[in-house]
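Worked example 3. Consider a protein that binds phosphoenolpyruvate.
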Amino acid sequence: MRSYLVAGNWKMHGSQARVSELLEGVLESAGAAESPVQVAVLPPFVYLAQAAQLLSGSNIALGAQDLCEQVGEGAFTGEVSAAMLADVGCRYVVVGHSERRAQYGESDELVAAKTAAALQAGLLPIVCVGETDAEREAGDTLAVVSRQLSAVLERLGPDELRGVVVAYEPVWAIGTGKTATPVQAQEVHAYLRALLAEHSEELAASTQLLYGGSVKAASAAELFAQPDIDGGLVGGASLDADEFSAICRAVS
Ligand code: PEP
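Given these inputs, the predicted complex is written out as structure tokens:
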């Protein structure tokens, strides 16, 4: 049986003061010990150590928004390795967010390499896939997410992929206020699970599939009630402790 995960992607937002304030709020309202949902926050790199300290002893997990595909140390100025993220207390790391694919030219192959580096260091990668508005209009949604996920599946075997999380994030829904309908999201999630099943039935049954794209407390319950949606990757709404906590509580 899969459990639920709700992860808050803070993107490039925050300051030391804001991190303390936001985490205080999240710990107060989403940190209930009996919660059936794994909650995670994903602050910018420079605030990870501070966040780790504030979250210490809580049941809220920490994650990063990206990592370097290179394993080990070396001359990679500006990069942060998977081992470093694990060292400061990260459990999760986002890989292949559409903003990185579109604005920093990350290819499917690079996303697969980053996924491999994360898993090798014991991190749980949250691999993002999703189509643009034009791709949906052209009827290419399933072909796009298939290409993106297949790059990862071709590089890593089912055993290596244990613990990987996949987030379906339609690009047209990210930061736009337009959420995929539960039916639209479920259709893609079911397709992604079937793709995983071609690789391994066990992997398909155990992999958490998150929906991301303008999730709000008001839309979360219906999305999370879909059979193949196992939680959410939340951007804008994760910067408001009350709204984020309400999304976490939307899991019935
Ligand atoms: C995201 O950036 O992963 C995201 C889902 O953002 P938002 O919730 O703001 O659409």
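Take a moment to read the result before moving on. The radius of gyration is 17 Å. The chain has eleven helices and eight strands.
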